Amino acid sequence: MANNMTLLWCTFSVPCWRVMIALEEKMLQGYNQTLLDFDKEEHKSTIVMDLNPRAQLPTFKHGDCIVNESYGACMYLENQFRSQGTQMIPEGLAEQALMYQRMFEGQTFYEKLSDVVYYEYYVPQGERHDSAIKRNKGNLAIEIKLWEGYFQKMEAGSYLAGKAFSLADVLVFPTIAYSFRSGLSAERYPKLGAYYSMMKDRPSVKTTWPPHWQEDQEKPQWGDFLKEL
Amino acid sequence: MANNMTLLWCTFSVPCWRVMIALEEKMLQGYNQTLLDFDKEEHKSTIVMDLNPRAQLPTFKHGDCIVNESYGACMYLENQFRSQGTQMIPEGLAEQALMYQRMFEGQTFYEKLSDVVYYEYYVPQGERHDSAIKRNKGNLAIEIKLWEGYFQKMEAGSYLAGKAFSLADVLVFPTIAYSFRSGLSAERYPKLGAYYSMMKDRPSVKTTWPPHWQEDQEKPQWGDFLKEL
């Protein structure tokens, strides 16, 4: 029981989801958790600000240790609970190299997805340009084709860094899931689609599935941002 | 001798500098290296593209393993050469948590610095706005104050994650160095300035100091982008 751990999170958040998957994989169930409402600006409330001056979610605490950055929290958990639950860093040299490469490429993937999906959130009205929207979508399409290509070169049923599930999956799967929920076509990107389907059945993913997605699992949540991609 | 390692890099690059510092810290001198000219678009040449479809520098290879993402390469090197050179992941729980927190916050720092310094490079002419330039500078100022504050709460002479040098320093110091080289005032940010001075004397930093900075160490390289910050 991970009752010395606290997670403040919000639904709709890729970074929060990463940490929740890692906690499940490391068998750290039973942590204290509070679901906050981003739209009500609860991420700016004092319970967050006291632990996280950036006013961001996730906010994560283990004993007296605070690791709010999602990549940092997942790596910290793997390091602290190495022999518990899933081993998330593979032993093999090649798999390890591929894991580190893919997990950080995953940040670029998430940035490019955010540039499309959150454009109106990030860019004030007077500074928006159709040319930027078009370019962002183009960049995201190139990015997604790159990932489809990575899977094309691997055996069917592979995880992101090879035969074994790893930190790369913990950190990048939520971005892939959000892409499909934003209208990405599994027909056009069949390898990514197969990976998405495989991962959806993983217990750590099932347990942490965003609550607002439960009602209608197949309908794009974000509108059809990525439909034509 | 690290003669089974290859690094393709360019000067002026924070991500390249991270990997070069890590290689020095892990006593991996003697690697094959090629300095490419970004302005001549040599990062799009076939020697890069063959290893790195993103056409980015650094491009790093160890034997048959390719890890081009700078954070990934540094973590891979620490993992593969754990008992060689500097131990870059501290033992203590609190130091380790702080290291993971700061190293990933460092990505935000670098993003905000890039938003200011590379604005004209990233944003096409017709899409530029004075309001965005002003906002980016404001965001960077907030960010830098945050880091100054982190050092204020630590003992004099501390590294980013405490008493010991760690991966956080490898990954974030180049961003801090670029900030000062872009005109940041060490008078206004004395704790960051003291850290910058301390790190400048570290052998791994001295050896890898950007070659184009050698001639006039004190003159801001990038112009005075950050002078008024």
UniProtKB/TrEMBL annotation, chains A, B:
Domain GST C-terminal: start-end pairs: 92-221
MF annotations from Gene Ontology: glutathione transferase activity; maleylacetoacetate isomerase activity
Domain of life: Eukaryota
GO biological process: glutathione metabolic process; L-phenylalanine catabolic process
Pfam families, sorted: GST_C_3, GST_N_3
Domain GST N-terminal, residue spans: 3-85
Sorted UniProt keywords: Signal
InterPro entries (UniProt xref): Glutathione-S-Trfase_C-like (IPR010987), Glutathione-S-Trfase_C_sf (IPR036282), Glutathione_S-Trfase (IPR040079), Glutathione_S-Trfase_N (IPR004045), GST_C (IPR004046), Thioredoxin-like_sf (IPR036249)
GO CC terms: mitochondrion
Annotated signal peptide: 1-22
Transmembrane residue ranges: none
Stored PANTHER family: GLUTATHIONE S-TRANSFERASE GSTA, GLUTATHIONE S-TRANSFERASE-RELATED
UniProt family annotation: Belongs to the GST superfamily.
Name the UniProt record assigns to this protein: Glutathione S-transferase A-like
